[in-house]
Design brief:
Layout (H helix, E strand, L loop, with lengths): L1 H13 L4 H7 L5 H8 L7 H11 L3 H4 L12 E10 L16 E6 L9 E6 L13 E6 H4 L8 E7 L5 E10 L5 E4 L11 E2 L7 E12 L7
Parallel strand pairs: 1-3
Antiparallel strand pairs: 1-2, 3-4, 4-9, 5-6, 5-9, 6-7, 7-8
Helix pairs in contact: 2-3
Length: about 220
């Protein structure tokens, strides 16, 4: 971790920024977090690592000291991170403004279909058994790709309320032997452990908009 800490400090100085200015540059509210990164006390999550790598003119893999990414490597593709997924967060749009989006490399299996994917940052504890805070998931859209979720798929679920606001979360899609369909949060938080029946006439419009194909999780996030 100390190598990454030194690299962050070196990057900041090369840009002529103090810690407050670097924090503002990458959309971080708390300057003390940058100080923790530079002292090796904390590691940036995937979202901020991607932004730091972009400032350095490197891929994320290069920035964190992994093997350099090769553009002709079929197992590595760049995808755009376009928004956040968080239970209970109602917004006017499912995606950020384009200028707030960024690209990140993703390792994918050689047999995975070549669907266009979009990345989303996971916020909150509603799926933290599988995707901790700050993880990035990559999803293929259901409608535009003609995809139908299968039991066991991790899916993006979007709801629209009567005011036209949207909430997007991750759930596990489960089909029971009786044919009923359920959306399960996989969470350690008691407030996010109850399943929701899919297509049961709820007042909000509930739609499975994407199927998770890959994810980026720094293991330190689990601690």
């Amino acid at each position: 971790m100390q190598d990454l800490a030194d690299k962050i400090k070196k990057l900041r100085k090369s840009l002529g920024l103090n810690q407050d200015q670097l924090a503002a540059r990458i959309g971080l509210d708390v300057q003390s977090t940058v100080s923790k990164w530079e002292r090796g006390k904390q590691r940036p999550n995937a979202e901020y690592t991607a932004k730091l790598a972009e400032l350095a003119g490197e891929t994320m893999g290069q920035f964190i000291g992994a093997e350099p990414l090769k553009k002709n490597d079929a197992a590595v593709r760049n995808y755009r991170v376009v928004g956040e997924l968080q239970a209970g967060a109602w917004k006017e749009s499912l995606e950020w403004d384009f200028e707030d989006q960024y690209e990140i490399p993703c390792y994918v299996g050689p047999n995975m279909p070549n669907y266009p994917l979009k990345g989303f940052v996971v916020r909150g504890p509603s799926m933290n058994k599988l995707y901790p805070e700050g993880a990035i998931v990559f999803a293929a859209a259901t409608i535009s790709n003609g995809l139908t979720p299968k039991s066991g798929n991790k899916v993006i679920v979007s709801r629209r309320d009567q005011n036209g606001l949207y909430e997007s979360t991750i759930k596990e899609f489960v089909v029971e032997p009786d044919g009923s369909k359920w959306l399960w949060p996989r969470s350690y938080d008691p407030e996010h452990q109850a399943p929701v029946e899919y297509n049961n006439g709820r007042a909000e419009e509930v739609t499975i908009t994407g199927i998770i194909m890959a994810s980026f999780i720094v293991e330190a996030m689990r601690g």
